[in-house]
Amino acid sequence: MGSNNTDVKNNESKIIFVGDGNNQIGENSGPVNVFGSDKSRITKNEGVVSIIGSTNEIIYNNGKNSPVAIVGNNNSDVTGNKNKAKVNVYGNGNSTIARNEEDSVITVLGDNNKDINENSGSVSIVGNNNTGVQSNKNLVIVGHNNEDIRNVSDTFILASNVINVQSNSVVLGNASAGKAVTEVSNQEMAGTTYNFAGVASQDNGSVSVGAEGKERQIHYVAAGEVSATSTDAVNGSQLHAAYQDIKLNDARISNMETKVDRINGRIDVLNKQIHAAGATSMAMGNLVQAYRPGQNSTTVALGHYGDASAIAFGLSTVADDSKWGAKISFAANTESEFGAGAGLGYFW
């Protein structure tokens, strides 16, 4: 139905045209349904080809049991997709959706998406101007202007303008970036090693909500379990509670440090006093004693102990009959302490 349809030949299946200017529809072995104008080079396809729209061209050499559905205008180069690959394009100006693997399901919903090549599994693109989506497996992109998404698997992108996408991961938010997983299983703190639950791995992937210089806050996070085996996220109120406890412990430690400082001060004073007492004892112990009947003596002695010094002065006497003796002494030390002693003796 329509005009100027040319080169419709060597097809082995049912061909339906509704529109004008369609040409080079040849060597197809699967049904071809064309609704619209200006289709060209729809050739050598072995599966069902359904096109609704205008100026779609070069739908070529798609494999056996590989249905191609195009709804829109100016889509081109849907070529070389392998056996049992399913290609669905809904939009305008999408091009080079090619060489996708067997049993893959390629869905493009949007405009001007290009170079969707050599993918496997399920690859879905919803958005505009996504380019260079190649050699991926099981990928979802919802966003615009994403480029060079290559060699990743089992990844979900809800973002535009992303970079450095990783496998097994989720990327959220405009201009976000993926990042390789850092595996952390333990941490040493103050000489003690703490083991962590839920060790990350690249096989499990990561979730990114921003990029360097474009970090984002996550709001309205419920309080998570805090335990040795928990892998929950915690929120600000939990950190605040922990910080309050830390501040209380800091205050207790500060009070303890003050008490220890006081004790240390007292010990220092006691040490000085002990040294001074030792110096005083040594000085007084070295005073010379009168020893003959009727003899009197006046003596001076010095003493030193630790970092203290002392001086002592003494008087002593012995009775004429040698039966009695007496002694008195005085001392002062470098701690400004003074001492005195006296003694009386009977000899027989």
UniProtKB/TrEMBL annotation:
Keywords: Cell outer membrane, Membrane, Protein transport, Signal, Transmembrane, Transmembrane beta strand, Transport. GO terms for cellular component: cell outer membrane; cell surface. InterPro entries: Coiled_stalk_dom, Pilin-like, Serralysin-like_metalloprot_C, YadA_C. It is found in: Cell outer membrane; Cell surface. Residues 218-247 form the Trimeric autotransporter adhesin YadA-like stalk domain. Residues 288-348 form the Trimeric autotransporter adhesin YadA-like C-terminal membrane anchor domain. GO terms for biological process: protein transport. Belongs to the autotransporter-2 (AT-2) (TC 1.B.40) family. This is Uncharacterized protein.
